[in-house]
Recover the amino acids of this structure.
């Protein structure tokens, strides 16, 4: 059944320095009725400080992290930052979490990447225990023991010195594989999808339903949020729009992670593009980035994006309205945001 879609502005992470015009885009997004703005982090700018800075000039729009990398901060540090920003924003924070990948986790943060699902489950459990303030927080799990064993022996369980502004802070999980998507549906309030195709809805609906069916699941499909990153380019030249996006998809599908451990590449592989992805990876990792970009099929790009003339995009939006997605996360200048609001919000 078709649903009304919400819009979010995805500011992302920085390339070299603060993105020009970001503050203006954030304010325009709020004026246009966007539901949320989102910041990110990789191994440069962090997600929380820009969100607080730009969010301070807004009054209504929700403030989301897409994502906070869990290896960058202990669970307690993330819980503290989330409580603080939620108070300062008047209860507008959405805490988007993700595990990142082994290159960043082990190479940048110096943390082990093993068992990412188990680490995330334990991490979320500690966040919710801290926020609940039912007593001093302890954790017997293997990844984030509280208090830590060894050391001085003087560590003791503590309870947060501040209360939450709200009963609970929404947690969204960035997930690509079926097991991660199911865990998002089980433990979280929403799912952050970086590569989503409404033409392959079965790839997502099955793990979502599996998560909703687990004992203790927080939500059902009726009240679970799915925020999907969707490039939007309104133009009469579809091929030119696809060419503009090809380098980004070549980087994600061909150049991120090792050849046998690229979680991003697994998404188009599950969509049926395995031969194309293998070619893209071979070219990209061989140093042929332009050829890798040219090898990204236009059909794949059109299934992951909204590109083309306005009437085509209006038609293509119907498939998104019939999907599990509740929010489209787009990037762009104020004019792009105005066009998106006209097409999506009517």
């Amino acid at each position: 059944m078709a649903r009304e879609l919400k819009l979010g502005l995805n500011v992302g992470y920085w390339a070299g320095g603060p993105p020009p015009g970001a503050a203006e885009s954030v304010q325009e997004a709020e004026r246009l009725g966007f539901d949320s703005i989102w910041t990110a982090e990789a191994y440069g700018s962090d997600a929380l400080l820009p969100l607080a800075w730009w969010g301070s000039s807004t009054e209504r729009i929700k403030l989301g992290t897409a994502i906070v990398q869990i290896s960058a901060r202990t669970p307690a540090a993330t819980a503290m930052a989330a409580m603080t920003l939620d108070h300062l924003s008047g209860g507008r924070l959405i805490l988007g979490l993700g595990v990142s990948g082994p290159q960043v986790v082990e190479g940048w943060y110096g943390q082990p990447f093993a068992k990412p699902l188990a680490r995330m489950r334990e991490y979320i459990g500690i966040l919710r225990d801290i926020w609940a303030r039912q007593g001093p927080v302890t954790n017997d799990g293997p990844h984030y023991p509280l208090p830590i064993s060894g050391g001085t022996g003087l560590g003791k369980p503590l309870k947060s010195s501040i209360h939450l502004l709200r009963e609970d802070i929404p947690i969204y999980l960035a997930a690509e594989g079926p097991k991660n998507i199911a865990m998002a549906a089980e433990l979280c309030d929403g799912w952050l999808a970086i590569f989503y195709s409404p033409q392959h809805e079965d790839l997502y609906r099955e793990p979502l339903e599996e998560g909703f069916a687990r004992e203790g699941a927080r939500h059902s499909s009726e009240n679970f949020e799915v925020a999907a990153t969707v490039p939007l380019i309104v133009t009469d030249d579809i091929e030119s729009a696809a060419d503009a996006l090809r380098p980004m998809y070549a980087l994600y599908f061909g150049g991120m992670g090792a050849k046998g451990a690229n979680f991003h590449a697994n998404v188009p592989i599950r969509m049926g593009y395995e031969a194309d992805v293998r070619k893209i990876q071979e070219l990209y990792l061989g140093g042929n980035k332009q050829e890798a970009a040219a090898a990204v099929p236009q059909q794949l790009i059109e299934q992951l994006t909204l590109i083309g003339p306005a009437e085509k995009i209006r038609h293509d939006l119907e498939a998104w309205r019939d999907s599990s997605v509740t929010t489209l996360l787009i990037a762009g200048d104020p004019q792009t945001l105005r066009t998106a609001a006209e097409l999506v919000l009517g």
Notes: The first strand starts at residue 6 and ends at 12. Residues 7 and 328 are 5 Å apart (CA to CA). The mean pLDDT is 96.
